[in-house]
Amino acid sequence: GGEKVNSVEALYDKYFHDVYLYLKSLTRSDDLAEELTQETFFRAMKSLDKFEGKSSIKTWLFRIARNLFINHIKKQKRFSDDELPIDIPDVKSDFVEKISDNSEAVSIHKILHNLEEPYKEVFSLRVFSELSFKQIADIFGKTESWARVTFHRGKLKISEKLEEKYE
């Protein structure tokens, strides 16, 4: 009896705040928590079909978030494996793949090319120009939360199209 997932947007709307607060408590940084939260939903989205309902969706999302945080720390090389700042059992998540291989990157650029505005521009500004949400908001004369939501929706659209490609 796990939960059914209707849409990623519903998932995002329902759990974004929880995941963000959880990551904020781990990272003690707004920006990093924000970044890892977006990444958490992006990963969750790509692996939704592998969610088996053995745990609650929230627990599953938190596990993805936690793994991303651990990876981030390891990348920073601030801590060795045995001195991670939090006590975390090692959760191997086989469904977390990186968008590293070339064909995937090419697919994303193709999808992006056909993406409608404002998603295309917001996604590009964020990912390729590495602008903050505040800067993006200023460019469009909108709020920061508009920029966040628009970016995330753009990411969703790209992911959905990637999924279609593999069906």
What are its keywords?
mainly alpha, 7 helices, 167 residues, 0% strand, globular
How does this structure look, described?
The chain is mainly α and 167 residues long. Helix content is 66%, strand content 0%. The protein is built from 7 helices and no strands. The protein has helices at 8-27, 30-46, 57-76, 102-114, 119-127, 133-140, 144-166. Helix 1 (8-27) packs across helix 3 (57-76) and helix 4 (102-114) packs across helix 7. It is globular and about 35 Å long. It starts with 7 loop residues before the first helix and ends with a helix.
**Roughly how many Å is the radius of gyration?**
16 Å
Strand content: under 5%
DSSP summary: helix tally: 7
Rounded to the nearest angstrom, the distance between the terminal CA atoms is 26 Å
Topology, number of strands: 0
- Averaging pLDDT over every residue, what do you get? 74
Helix/strand-derived class? mainly alpha
Major sheet: none
Helical fraction: 55-70%
Low-confidence stretches at least 5 residues in length (pLDDT < 50)?
Answer: 80-101
Tertiary shape: globular
Run of helices and strands:
HHHHHHH
Q: What is shown here, in short?
A:
The protein has helices at 8-27, 30-46, 57-76, 102-114, 119-127, 133-140, 144-166. With 167 residues, it is an all-alpha fold. Helix 6 (133-140) packs across helix 7 (144-166).
